[in-house]
Amino acid sequence: MTKKQVEESIAYLQGKGFEAPEVGIVLGTGLGQLIDHIEDKIEAHYNNIPFFPLATVEFHSGKLVYGNLHGKKVVVMQGRFHFYEGYDLIDVTYPIRVMHGLGIKHLFISNAAGAINPAFKKGEIMLLEDHINLQGGSPLAFKGVAQFGERFVDMSQPYDKAMSDTLKEIASQENITLHEGVYAAVVGPQLETRAEYRMLKIIGADAVGMSTVPEVIVANHLNLPIVALSVLTDECDPDNLAPINIPEIIEVAGKAEPKMIRLFTELIQRL
């Protein structure tokens, strides 16, 4: 990755009308309905954007969508990239750098995750207050990183406190159960064993997934304020572990998504 490549991606999108978005949003597995709320949409498919990776996961549609959401210009990633698809972490986070270059001032991330904390139930939402990176790498571990910013990035508070506090306030007003917790990012794509779920609980994880953390690291590298929500799609109790049911996970994500959309759209209005 070079600055010139990022600049070419930005120029292409600006040529399509992606002008000065204020908020960038990354939509996770099964979480595509937010797109329906955007007005005056302009779309750019990933395979047409110079130097963009291509989406390979069937639950992700693979395009950037620009438009108006409650009076704010937004750019939304409908379909994200995962380490388990064979991309490196620089590719996975490339769109964050492009959205930042387009002008976003805030980044919202969503994901589907498994609940490790026994007090958290499927269909509920967790606000990320911290994370554990178990993906065995960093999107900042490359030779030319200094041209993009400081190599040694502080991660003492990776998620923006002001936006997180506002989300908690909104959840309370809207009667939405919003847990706060620690998200563990693993490589995948296989799901965890019973022993791995026990380990994750011991090291302090409240939920587990296969995304988000690389994007959060890059957002911090760019000094971009970020909030992230996990839609909890299954309960990972190692003593009562049922075989994984992917269609059910997608269904649970879809049912919980309107709550996530309410939280994000209300937050956008309050920025």
From TrEMBL:
Domain Nucleoside phosphorylase: 23-268
UniProt keyword terms in alphabetical order: Glycosyltransferase, Transferase
GO cellular component, one term: cytoplasm
Pathway: Purine metabolism; purine nucleoside salvage
GO molecular function: purine-nucleoside phosphorylase activity
Domain of life (superkingdom): Bacteria
GO terms of biological process kind: nucleoside metabolic process
A Pfam family matched in the record: PNP_UDP_1
EC number: 2.4.2.1
Function recorded in the entry: The purine nucleoside phosphorylases catalyze the phosphorolytic breakdown of the N-glycosidic bond in the beta-(deoxy)ribonucleoside molecules, with the formation of the corresponding free purine bases and pentose-1-phosphate.
The family this protein is said to belong to: Belongs to the PNP/MTAP phosphorylase family.
Protein name listed in UniProt: Purine nucleoside phosphorylase
Organism encoding this protein: Sediminicola luteus
Source lineage: Bacteria, Pseudomonadati, Bacteroidota, Flavobacteriia, Flavobacteriales
